[in-house]
């Protein structure tokens, strides 16, 4: 066996550009990469890094401008058909036929990929068993939850055993339990069938599960190797800070924006930070005036290396320091305690199915409250009821002291809402979106002018003001959506999976803003699938099958999952533990 | 009020900045104006004619030349045998065969009467009927001329036809005012029916619903662009009808616009009803055409309602286009005053009231 036989996929000097209405965009620049046979290779990078383009080039769906792509020994430009017969590709939005059942979808893909009829039965059994869908084969694909759809998509891709499996962000918008199951399926295939996998992901903990990682940024390869390789240079630069006097969020605010801090995030009951190379470590320099804080060295992880590499490329600081304008505007009763959201015995039925059953909780003013749950747990339904988008069947819902069930319009004037799709008017320019949403919330004259200026500066929208908002990069869309939601200085901010599909840098920036808002007294209610983001919450509720399974602060939630095996469970482990133990009960 | 204006402004921007919806406003009107203005006509001209003249007399030559001289007929073939007739008609070479028997001239001279046979392709019954009318007229003229020339005296009664309102019976005068109704309906329906569905598809509808706008405000915001564009569209076509197609506008513009406004309201109501029910733009488009096609066929736009079976005629009473077409043709050709059109105007107002209310109700129900 020569060395070349162990390479599944080769890119040599590959360049690919796209023309949009205004300019040509270089999606891939002179890329040279080899992907090894029988391994899992992770593809990571911020939005617009060229991950999807790379995948599509590898399937022969796109042709490169220059260079060669070789897949399993075939040239992608000339032998696309041979490649497509051997490669399984699952795009971000897999084409399931929603009006067909699970079984019919499998049949269809088996037909399309020419799987011999006699081989199907065993293959179906394996796949259905592996994906845990034995009970759902007769259900319509459109009626499945997000996680189940992804699993079905993967099963359809695997109906004809592929030699190379290309997965484009298979775990976006998928809850931790389903995410783990997806990974188990992938792992098994690599182990048992020797499949080669190339997988792009926004979850950096997933990169750690890969054999090798390719790091892309703006179409260029900025690093490759086993994940540990990225951790090594970070040794001695990663720490935790525990402060006895200050809230973690406040510590974080003080630390971010400093040139000697590369990254700072809340992790558990401490703040985890990555220092720039060669910084002498002393708590006095980091947090002057803080004498009851401890700086504890911790082992580096993949994410640290990724953020460090990216930041170096961008010559960026940890978190763009926010202009003080965010705090300038009225501090919404920062000191006043009280209830911002009150949910009492709320139910919602669709026919005879209860999507939300008898849920009660309170959210205090200035709190960041997380709503977590597996796909289909009822958190979206609850969320929509709170925003007044869906009437409750039963119970009491109060938002900012107003009964949502009776005077929804009055309540709506006091909330801001941002959905996971960053729903903005795509054909309108950024400026027009800002103008419309400011007027929609009844702002006029100088106040409107002032707020539009505020949003433009605060969210750094000046350079894109005249661009169509539909053509913005995802990170900008997210900023614009948040700007629009904050136009009228709402007391309460509803965020529905606000960071779904957004890269780690943009996510940090986003949470930095949210922290800033919370510190001015804005109440934030957020749903998320990123368990590390749950750490930013003051309190949270974990939902399952329409009920609140657990309610409390992050440490309290983790306490519930503590066992001898897991003395220090992470938020994700706690979440999975809670869901599974409830499942066993049922 | 400012908030509402901002919403309307936004709706206009969303509509006009999107190339696809811009096309909906500009494309169909131009195409349909050309199609109906130039192509759709009841007038039959240049009917291909085959002549089978077995008579050798002067009289038969005179009759044939009368056919040839008419702008309704065009001689395409000359037949010399009986068996040539069938292939002519079967192969659609000629629509009409004029057969003059060998004894035609003799009979005329001797008996004072003779037979002429006209064979028509009856596959398109309407054209055949119109063609037959032309042939009758030519033969009639020939008769009168013959009678006077040979001192037989004219027929005791003579029909002098004069058609009012459209003296030359140009079918363009009939069609073009109808286009105003047709196009206004199509464009208004498309603009309103797609507006909510587009927002649902893009996810912006939720974003709009969480603003303090009340359902009726959103409804007004959605209805206004449809209203303004409907009126604008109607104005453009009325202008084109008068100055381009030279159809006389006899009646008052005010009366015409009372009709236009009521009709646009009715169309918006239907459009918004479809909009509030449709989840995707595809559904909205299908819904719009599900309404448009029967609405046009059952309006009297091209085929008279009076010819329809009674049950179908009953259905047409629910069709706003039916009333609007009468208003249009009335004002354009007859110069009908508003009091004569009252029985067309109030049903449109009633339909508008019903559809708009149900749209509002559906909207509310869908929102909550």
UniProtKB/TrEMBL annotation, chain A:
Pfam families tied to this protein: ABC_tran (PF00005)
PROSITE patterns: ABC_TRANSPORTER_1, ABC_TRANSPORTER_2
UniProt KW keywords: ATP-binding, Nucleotide-binding
Matching PANTHER family: ABC TRANSPORTER G FAMILY MEMBER 20 ISOFORM X1, ATP-BINDING CASSETTE, SUB-FAMILY H, MEMBER 1
SUPFAM superfamilies: P-loop containing nucleoside triphosphate hydrolases (SSF52540)
One term of GO molecular function: ATP binding
Top-level division of the source organism's lineage: Bacteria
Alphabetized InterPro entries for the sequence: AAA+_ATPase, ABC_transporter-like_ATP-bd, ABC_transporter-like_CS, P-loop_NTPase
Start and end residues of each ABC transporter domain: 9-243, 341-570
Lineage, opening ranks: Bacteria, Pseudomonadati, Planctomycetota, Planctomycetia, Pirellulales
Protein name (database record): ABC transporter ATP-binding protein
Statement: the UniProt record of this protein carries the keyword Nucleus: no
Record's keyword annotation contains Nucleotide-binding: yes
Automatic annotation (TrEMBL), chain B:
GO function terms (MF aspect): ABC-type transporter activity
Alphabetized UniProt keyword annotations: Cell membrane, Membrane, Transmembrane, Transmembrane helix, Transport
GO-annotated cellular components: ATP-binding cassette (ABC) transporter complex
Domain ABC transmembrane type-2, chain residue ranges per copy: 132-366
TM spans (from-to): 173-197, 226-247, 254-278, 284-302, 345-363
Subcellular location as annotated: Cell membrane
Entry protein name: Transport permease protein
InterPro entries per record: ABC-2_transporter_component, ABC2_TM, ABC2_TM_bact-type, ABC_2_transport
Similarity annotation: Belongs to the ABC-2 integral membrane protein family.
Lineage: Bacteria, Pseudomonadati, Planctomycetota, Planctomycetia, Pirellulales
Membrane topology annotation: Multi-pass membrane protein
Signal peptide: none
Domain of life: Bacteria
Major place of residence: membrane
